[in-house]
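Hi W.,

Here's what went into the run:
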Amino acid sequence: MRPKLLGYPPDGGRSSAAAETGLAAASPVSPAIAVRGLAKVYQTNAGDTVHAVSHMDFDVDAKEFVSIVGPSGCGKTTVLRILAGLVGGYSGSVSIGGRVVHGPTPEIGVVFQDANLMPWRTVLANVMLPGEVLRLSRNECRERALALLKLVGLEGFENKLPRELSGGMRQRAAIARALVHNPKILLMDEPFGALDAMTRDTMNLELARIAVESGKTVFLITHSISEAVFLSDRVLVMSSRPGRIIETIRVRNQRPRGLDVIATPRFSEMVLHIRHLLEGEGAPASTVTLAH
Amino acid sequence: MTLQIELPIVERERGSLMSRVTVPDWMLTTLLIASVIGLCQGLIVTGVVSKYVMPLPSSIPISLWELVKSGVLFDNALTTLMEAVSGFAIAAVLGLTLGALIAEFRMFERVFYPYIVALQTMPKIALAPVLLVWFGFGPGSKIAVAAVISLFPILVNTIAGLKSCDSGRLDVLRALGASRWDCFRMVRLPNSLPFVFSGLSTASMFALIGAIVGEFVGANKGLGYLIVQANSQMNIPQVFAIVLVLALLGIAAFGIIEFCRRRFLYWMSEE
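Here's what came out:
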């Protein structure tokens, strides 16, 4: 399955080998995501200025899994929306695959807080939506969508409508949709925030597997420290108002990890360390959730 | 240690006589209409109400049969139906197009929206006499009245539907760099359909009202014209027979729209 998933040229025309070497040659050393001196100031309707993000610098390497944790309202979502090209008017520079971001790019797949499926489309048609927008070959797109639905464990649900699915299944479909045009980078904004704890654990295991199997660069935003530590190569800890990175934690274990790492003392230490970092910033304890 | 809690037992209230006796709804509905008809018949037969004011219920089917037999009913019903359907079709095309332009383009919104708000509160049926002057004595003026009054529910609902679009779903397309047209046809338009159909449903009733009122104002054909004729001859049973036919036309129109709604909005969860 893996070569099939990777072998999907984003332009739908060139052969997979040409697409991969071509992109690799274009950016031999540049990281998947490079953020330099990023700052975003909002103007509220009342006329106040809000410093959502100030002076952020970070890189995400190709195939790396990086999470951002931070209290509510620390500007995490703003960072993700800037990376996705959905928010402009910021200072500093953001590059994706070595190219400066000027708007949305098909090199990125986004999974939002809500699944945001189109209720009038079947699961398969929802997953194929990016293919229609990007004018990719219908047959190839369909084949890929079916393979991805299998990957996220939704085989047999292709012709169901979103209302017939549970919350977790909808979010799986949204992940498949974000991958269908074979983006290099997957941006996820608290994708499992609305799910119950049990489903969330299952989804984290699935995500860990999918991230490795599909070979994507993943940038995840989450509230849950343990989720971040469990899934990531690196965890960026953000402070609130104005949002900036206060520490970067590297998790060296091989991915994907089994749930048993959660029970290890090192894991608890890391989680506790991040929690202290966040609390030191004056974040109310309730905004930091520990799953275990 | 086991925690023991005892919850107070709430005794179920004993149902009243009404809730314990179960009668099927359709029986009550039939009973109601039967007793209303019976009461009318009784009041008129006993002379409490003059039969020139209120027809004997039993005389309505007879009158209806006469209209059917002579072919007068079919001919005039067809005229009215044609006027209402034409008016509705014009209103639907205009309402959907104009609604989409207003919802999508700021310029159209700024130019048209104030007038739409102003016109919406105006009883547009009052234009019927003027429209007769403008569009003539024939079906044209009736189509115009039907179109004018059924335009607004479609227009207003189309605008509301297109504007109510969930920004999360739009973000999915925007993140792919989708064009404005793709956003419209893939998200906004299907998203607006529940609103559009409620507008079409109201408009179908309005179109029938428009055609009838247009015929009241001045016509030589149609069910509205027949009503005015029968009324002037104090043929009250015939008036009621025609009203009955109009009711059936209204129900049919509603049924057709409802059928289409179910076909297009298969994805909405049933209430």
